[in-house]
Amino acid sequence: MSQLRLLPFRLRAQATGLLATRAVPERNWRSRSSGPPAAFPSGLGGGSSSYMEAMYSAWLENPQSVHKSWDSFFQKTSEEASHAAPEGRPVPSQRTTTSKLVEDHLAVQSLIRAYQSTYCQHIGLEFMFINDVEQCQWIRQKFETPGVMQFSSEEKRTLLARLVRSMRFEDFLARKWSSEKRFGLEGCEVMIPALKTIIDKSSEMGIENVILGMPHRGRLNVLANVIRKDLEQIFCQFDPKLEAADEGSGDVKYHLGMYHERINRVTNRNITLSLVANPSHLEAVDPVVQGKTKAEQFYRGDTQGRKVMSILVHGDAAFAGQGVVYETFHLSDLPSYTTNGTVHVVVNNQIGFTTDPRMARSSPYPTDVARVVNAPIFHVNADDPEAVIYVCSVAAEWRNTFNKDVVVDLVCYRRRGHNEMDEPMFTQPLMYKQIHRQVPVLKKYADKLIAEGTVTLQEFEEEIAKYDRICEEAYGRSKDKKILHIKHWLDSPWPGFFNMDGEPKSMTCPTTGIPEDMLTHIGTVASSVPLEDFKIHTGLSRILRSRADMTRKRLVDWALAEYMAFGSLLKEGIHVRLSGQDVERGTFSHRHHVLHDQEVDRRTCVPMNHLWPDQAPYTVCNSSLSEYGVLGFELGYAMASPNALVLWEAQFGDFHNTAQCIIDQFISTGQAKWVRHNGIVLLLPHGMEGMGPEHSSARPERFLQMSNDDSDAYPVFTEDFEVSQLYDCNWIVVNCSTPASYFHVLRRQILLPFRKPLIIFTPKSLLRHPEAKSSFDQMVSGTSFQRVIPEDGKAAQAPGQVRRLIFCTGKVYYDLVKERSSQGLDGQVALTRLEQISPFPFDLIRQEAERFPGAELVWCQEEHKNMGYYDYISPRFMTILGRTRPIWYVGREPAAAPATGNRNTHLVSLRKFLDTAFDLRAFEGKTF
């Protein structure tokens, strides 16, 4: 206790196991003289009895010498003693009676303490909120049984060796690169043996694959001593001459991930360890790890999580402050998202960057968020390695016994500032004076083992010298430039998908159409109920009849096109997973992939899983009301295998803004930073239809602004231009105007020889628009996705007479077609649709512009001018046209909000830009 005496009282209480008592807010725990908690904290200041007696003696001499709460307590006790005297007898002295009551209180406390000496040392537990008697009793047995925390000499020696590696690794980096940021683990070196214990115990219980996520603090140490990344690969990242890999920008060394298969030396079993790469955005990796874990379990058929598990490491301030932690916890027990328990390890530095806990959270403890899912919380003093190891072993056993989350709170400190260049004395002077006097855990534990005869001083020094020698030899090898390659840092390799050098096996993409009999078969199943005696809603019966009618007529609408894309991929062995809020039915009641029996509760049918005898499985699952957490989960799911189509659909495209962190940090930049290909698909309903500013725009301008194709570079049109352009981009952005386009782009996503994120702005009103239907002829074998759909009507028959060529994308095309017809301008105005916006189809745009040489060029969009696509397409048009012809803008004026909330205003602005689009004199006399 004396080693942490100057730290805030509540934090000292955590470090000494006082958490077994009821949580008391920090503001009520200011000093040793503060009021008594609900249950007196035994173990404080040399024992509760001596402390309380001293307090009482001081009060008798001077009531003002103690805290007012103790004054009130002793006064009340004295009054009770006076009233308790028998009638007619003299009242004993106040001191004698009160002392007797105090002694009785102390006797009860001593009895409790004798029974639970466990909680008066370096471990504190929170589990009484768990509403399961079996689970509570299991925890009690693990901690309250006398003598359970015993270690053999060999186990102690292993623990010491792991501590040596943890601490000497940090010391080596500090010696070699004293001026480099490395976000070291000093102050919580015990985390390395803690993680290794969790992995050892889990391996013993049958786990074969462990997926880890963690922040930057301690990552290099984990890579070196847990994942067992080659040290020379780590050290070479400190080379000042290190250049970014050819594939992209790379990332700082403490953000990188790793994948490693090896033998666990404790269990002698194979173990695969994967540390997921992630950015500085705190806790953003949590749902990504869970999604990757779920996918690995799915592909192994590990429905109970007996083979694959996840470990998440957190910082105390981030664990309490970041909302994605809460979102991730709430996925933990949902059927389509559970990973059957995660071990959470909180590195509790008792400080954020420079912020004290009292300023950083309102909850008593940083781990309180875990209580929402009834996860037991084990607090342990990180300066007691044996206590830490025991707690971690129990945590791993809990996870593999009950398949539920568990939290290990390592109450420690941060020896240096936020990074090695930071000065913590600016803001926490008293805390860091005490920390600077703190004896490192390695020395304390080594002294203990030497004193008890488990190891000798010579053996300890030899262990240090041995690891120092390993580091020095690796340092010498790190000078070899051959090892400087980012591909060594993959956290999700896809064996067999790429060539040995990591490049695609080809730069071609087969046609995406399928045989007509397959289209007919899928359409038939999509319009039927495969199960017998299954009663569906009468309204749904009409929808199924409509699908059957379309199939007979060789037509598809949006929902049926999606059905056919998914179904055809399932036949080819591609797992399809669609996730999001209300995706089973569809926000706009168009999908209905899960049928519900109207008379039997919870009886459902997924016809998509009844298409073919040996098809891949189809997973469609409504998510929790979360965007950040669920999108991160699906991103992680898509990381596990290239042979799956993983889609996340926003309820409205606008709502992706609460998942912007995943989009910015993982999806748009993942390949550039971590050479991580990912084929996740985002379905974002988009369209200006008078539904207000929060239900209209999926913010296409944001995605386009983050696209990496160069607006000023005139491309070289090679034979494989379409595919190579896709390979060079960071993601693909499309806005399909026909069901056939949607069908083809989904299939192309899998048939490409590489994986890129796909952003699709999906429609709302077009789901039922009578003109938004496609013929089987546009989807059969030999057909493909059209990046640009050219004018093919009356204007195309006499291109020399066309006065205006309007380019557009998405739903607005149907407004333009209708207006052109009503004004009788079919032969004078041509309409060309961009189905793929990014990467920009330079080659096809040039062809269209050259086809109508006398036409003025117009870009028409329904979005406001400062939004949508105009700022993206305009400079690219100028590049491909050599700045010889202008591209005029037609659309809504700039605005702050993406759409109006007034229906009439919406219609007025629509009328205005349609009039401009077909006013053939609108741009006369204007220059560009």
From TrEMBL:
It is found in: Mitochondrion. Signal peptide: none annotated. Keywords: Magnesium, Metal-binding, Mitochondrion, Oxidoreductase, Thiamine pyrophosphate, Transit peptide. The keyword Metal-binding applies. It is an enzyme of class 1 (oxidoreductase). CDD domains: TPP_E1_OGDC_like. InterPro entries: 2-oxogl_dehyd_N, 2oxoglutarate_DH_E1, DH_E1, KGD_C_sf, ODO-1/KGD_C, THDP-binding, Transketolase-like_Pyr-bd. Residues 79-98 are annotated as: Disordered. Its EC number is 1.2.4.2. It catalyses: N(6)-[(R)-lipoyl]-L-lysyl-[protein] + 2-oxoglutarate + H(+) = N(6)-[(R)-S(8)-succinyldihydrolipoyl]-L-lysyl-[protein] + CO2. It holds the Pfam family E1_dh. It comes from the Eukaryota. This is oxoglutarate dehydrogenase (succinyl-transferring).
